[in-house]
What does this fold into?
Amino acid sequence: MLIQIWNAFPEYSMSTEDAALAFLLLNPNDGSSQASDSIKYYFPNWPDEISGYDAGIAALKNHLSPKLAEAILSNSSHSESIASPSPKLATAILESQKNSEGLIAITIHPDFNLGTNESSADNMVRLRYERALEFLERSNHLAGIGYWELDLVNQKLTWSSETKRIHEVPEEYTPVLDTAIHFYPEGKYRDRITQLIKNAIDKGEHFDETLQIKTAKGKLNWVRSVGIPEVVNGTTIGVYGLFQDIHQSKVTETELQKNENLFRQTFEYASIGMALVGLNGKWLQVNQSLCRFLEYSEAELKQRSFQDITHADDLNLDLDLLGQCLEGSMDNYQMEKRYLTKSGQTVWALLAVSLVKDAEGTPLHFISQITNIDASKRLLERVQDQNERLINFAHIVSHNLRSHSANTALMLDMLKLDAPQVSELQSYKHLTQASENLDETIYHLSEITAMQLETNEHLEALDPWPFVEKNLKLLETDFNAANATISLHCENKVKAYGVAAYLDSILFNLLSNAIKYRSPDKPLQLEIRCQLDGDYLSFDFVDNGIGIDLERHGDKLFGLYKTFHHNEDAKGVGLFISRNQAEAMGGSLTAESKPDAGSTFTLRLKTAPKELQEDSNS
It folds into this structure.
């Protein structure tokens, strides 16, 4: 009976060459047939080889009565005892099944109801049969497949060892027909298995169903149950079948289905364009965001390739990167590119492409994410254009103003030579001062403009500490005159990314400001701390000077020509330039201060890349 199951359902097929159980498979779909060598136990004259479906039919008809052969070929199932031509056996049981695809599986096994007078040949057959059963049992355990049999004549239910294991009951457990149904949770699955068994008994229907059981240990497990009715003379005398543990595969399948649904929803409803693209560039699947962006319907896009709607100036780079993915040098890439919409407009997009491969590493298709950056790209182009115009304007203004300023200063000098007495006039002195201030302002504006243009070209790995020591040395006389106490604390000797001239200028401004704005009532105390702060090197300059009222002046502290004290040499330029220099290097300059409580200026500089750190240390 078990061999019949295995051969009626090819997914469970196994060898029976060394068993007294024979089978014959007839497949009209591909015109093939297959018979086990053991068929000669029952039909000694069976051909050594049969080729094809028709040859199998012919061999069957030659060894069976015409009526039995016709019953096998025409009915969905048949079972009867036959007289065996073999001298070793008196009778055998022949059973056949025809599945929905037309495959006919015929099995023949000994009739063990021979009474007590078994011959030695019968004993040999029984031993081989038992040996086959043991082999099947071991194979079942490895495959997680058990079997079961419902004997309706004797009202007996039998489970194999593997079926018991799946139910998590002990080996000595004896299933009872009335209570076995309780392993199925009440409701959907219990109702379903009840109906399947009823249909098998009443209507002779096979079943192959995925169900859920609750094991003896309380676990909910997925199983596959296959049932085959055994019909004799039109009456179902039993149902037998397979019982397979598919819990892990079902859980995996459910998880895959969940992930697939999540991907499908993400794909379809994503705010950015998404597409599956074939290896030849054809759009295989596109979402609505992409259709709206490119102004094509889904059907229209699928009739095109991405090459058809890519701007000619961007196509070669895209194809080159795509080729590198197919060659295996990379799995993904990203680029900005232009597409041509249905209406003929050129639009900018950020394209991110990933190559999808099968389990063997063979490329299948590409996943493309297409983000609409057209508005921001065009805004950036306008800003860049405006910046370039402003810079050109600044150069022109700076040059023209410098020329006029120089001419004014020259005319004042000539006036002084022609009429020396005018130099004593207050108005002349004011005019001279205004000319000098104008020249200085023009110089500062030119320096700021140059700062924004040239910084990136001069960034390098710098050790800031020697710059601190250098500027302290330059101002040593002033610090001594201020009776200053200076303390230095540096936790990390890390290279910063910057411009040497800017760093020098910032440090000189901060140190000289500590001297300028010291308290007249107490000696100057200055503390310089340095520590690593993530990707930045942070310097704190802490003094006990007169401080600044940030509640009043905080928003103007780093403004151009903003002063907050009455020092004669205060011009409101140093902090403005220092902050611009720090930001031009990718850093920052901030302050904390209170009147009469001192100030803390914090300079943060980006740390240099690792490779530059190593180069500068070597």
